[in-house]
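User: What would this chain look like folded?
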Amino acid sequence: MQPDEKLLCSPEEKIPFEIANQADVFQFLADFVKYGRTRITESDLLAIHHLTIKGIGKLSRRYD
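Assistant: Here's the prediction, encoded as structure tokens.
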């Protein structure tokens, strides 16, 4: 199998990153609610996107 050029890790290493990243996203959202925020901004979406693919993908600072 050819490694995906957009991945920063091997496909075998991807699952542990995904699990850890989703824990970070959960904490981000828990803090969002804890501090009484009610509007999700573009900045929030970018932060969630970055947390989701941190250590996995090269495009962790943008979304399409």
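The mean pLDDT is 83. If you want, I can go into more detail on any region.
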